Amino acid sequence: MSGIEILGTGSYVPEFVADNNKFAEFLDTSDEWITPRTGIKQRHILTDKPGYYMGIEAAKKALDDAGVKPEEVDLVLVSTCTPDFFYPSTACLIQKKIGAVNAAAFDVNSACTGFITATDIAQKYLESGHYKTILVVACEKLSGQLDYTDRSMCILFGDASGAVVYRKSDKPFYSMLGADGDEFEALYCKINYDPNCPFYGTKEGEEPWDAMFDTESKRKYLQSDGHAVYKFAVNAMANAVKNVAAQGGYDINDLDIVIPHQANLRIIKKATEILGIPEEKVYTNIARMGNVSSACIPVCLDEMRKQGMVKPGQKICFVGFGAGLTYGALIFET
Question: Is the pTM of this model over 0.85?
């Protein structure tokens, strides 16, 4: 199996910063309550632009870093669970704005696992030879899906975008993706369609299909069962890393860098503790960024490359989980 070469990375983080003290101004909370439970000190929020704007800016930076012209891109693949439009896809909006006139474009939504999913898809296309240059963008504006009266949820998330330009390499690549749809109620955000069709209704004697969404918050905003998510995430992330390491014949100690989904610092610490991965091999930025869904991993990757932490010959692992519930991991060599 052929691998992936990272030609360039880029990220966009909104200027506006909401630290924990800002939330204490309108919620019964405090920095002392938020930080120990989440590891989050602040998050960035896009206050005056559509979400896809972040994807455009991250994509431009990634192409510039890679030295690749927009017209050289064969595919724009976007991970998002917070699109500004049902259609067209966010990928098409980004393709237009960056001038990738020769590229196909489509979106992927596996929530916070989305960047891993998109990278896995990109690798398959590159290996087949169908495409030579692929731009993967994760673009997430979670601030628009939150109930700001719910102190347990709205403090967790922020907005950001990360992008990577990939080409085929002859280095190893191993991956796995999984899902457990039975657990969907543990983490979801329902589309709040306006039910104005005159033919809608429920047959007499039947319970409405959407009876479970019995509050305005459940109909409109992100919902999570924190205990269920924690239990799932810790086990799913640890098992996913074990799976891909076994595929490659690696010992866990062979990994040089692990970039996990930045959902909660306690989840990250517990999963890596189970795996026996030392803290110095695990990159986190959750204290500064909060949870930016599928953009977590590419933003971390871009930060690491800018700091000179990504070097040739390393074995890098991405691992995450998300709504669905979904999970996945991959290992590649630089």
Answer: yes
Over 80: is that where the pLDDT of 209 sits?
no
235 is catalytic: no
CA dihedral in degrees (31, 37, 42, 46; nearest 10)?
Answer: -120
Kindly name the residue from 139, 291, 296, 317 that is annotated as catalytic.
Answer: 291
Residue 196, in any domain of the structure: no
Q: Kindly report the backbone phi and psi dihedral angles of residue 79, in degrees, each rounded to the nearest multiple of 5, phi listed first.
A: -100, 125
| CATH number of the domain within which 83 lies | 3.40.47.10
**Which of 153, 165, 80, 64 has its CA nearest to residue 115?**
80
Mean pLDDT of 60-88: 98
Q: How confident is the model at residue 157 (pLDDT cuts 50, 70, 90)?
A: very high
Tell me the pairing of strands 134-141 and 159-169.
Answer: antiparallel
Enclosing domain of residue 122: 3-171
Q: Identity (one letter) of the amino acid at 297? A: I
Is the Cβ–Cβ distance between 163 and 137 less than 8 Å? yes
Task: Output the pLDDT for position 195.
Answer: 78
Mean pLDDT, residues 282-290 taken together: 98
Query: Is residue 80 one of the residues assigned to a domain?
Result: yes
For this structure, is 261 an active site residue?
Answer: yes
Contact 238, 230 (CB under 8 A): no
Residue 201 has pLDDT above 90, yes or no: no
Q: Do 178 and 240 fall within a single domain?
A: yes
What single DSSP character describes residue 205? T
Task: Identify the active-site residue in 44, 81, 109, 112.
Answer: 112
Given 261, 296, 300, 317, which residue is catalytic?
261
Euclidean distance between CA atoms 8 and 255, whole angstroms: 22
112 is catalytic: yes
Residue 206 belongs to some domain of the structure: no
